[in-house]
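Thread: Newbie trying to understand structure tokens

Hi all, I'm a second-year student working on a class project, and my supervisor (Dr. K.) asked me to get a predicted structure for one chain before our next meeting. I've only ever worked with sequences, so writing a 3D structure as a token string is new to me. If someone could post the tokens and maybe explain what I'm looking at, I'd be very grateful. Here's the chain:
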Amino acid sequence: MPRFHLPPESWSAAPRAVLTGEEAKHAAQVMRLRAGDSITVFDGLGRSAAATVEAVSKHQIELQLGEPKQIPLLKPEIILAQAVPKGKNMDLIVQKAVELGVAAIQPLITRRTVVQVGEDDADRKSAKWQRVALEACKQCGQDLIPRVEPAKSFQEWLPEAKGGLGIVASLYPGARPLREILGAAGMPERVTLLIGPEGDFTPEEVAAVIAAGYQAATLGPIVLRAETAAFFGISALRYAFT
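---
Reply by user tm_fold:
Sure, no problem. This is what the structure looks like when written as tokens:
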């Protein structure tokens, strides 16, 4: 059944609702929905409902909502702090992170990050990646849309990155096996997973993040690409805490 994002404020008149904007345009012009068709809508905060199309116009879709369902938030809350890779790999990382149930994604610019995101570009790229997250939710049946924050420099982000369990994937000597760290963690409310760029963090960045309370984790003897490291780390977290 086709899925569409119906923002939380659009549920106030339930069981009637109106789909507008890009979602309505997609429903009317791409999916070619007609009165009587059945769809699913979700608000991005865990609420969803079956809906029946009552009327279709170019700019809006009138709906009759069924009984809403609310899924609980996944625990622990996983924050992916990801150094922005080159090319379109960040799109792929956002897509798969959504499928694996992260709560938020923080793109980072580190010393060895090839792609540089200026202040003028940060909001535009964040909006693009947020759209990728929305499309991933629609495709995989996820009712919780992760927040994709504007890109920040490593130095700007680090003072804010506190609370819960912090893990930095690292190639440097002294990093402990991820399994060992997770086994001793109990059940944290929040986990921040920090993934570096191709070539890893600089020694200074690793020292700074460890000083901030993060634990350095090795993901095994094979050197992983940035996107593979992200998928591996999130999957390990989900497995450990499910």
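A couple of things are worth pointing out once you decode it. The longest strand covers residues 47-56. DSSP finds seven helices and 14 strands in the chain. Feel free to ask follow-ups in this thread.
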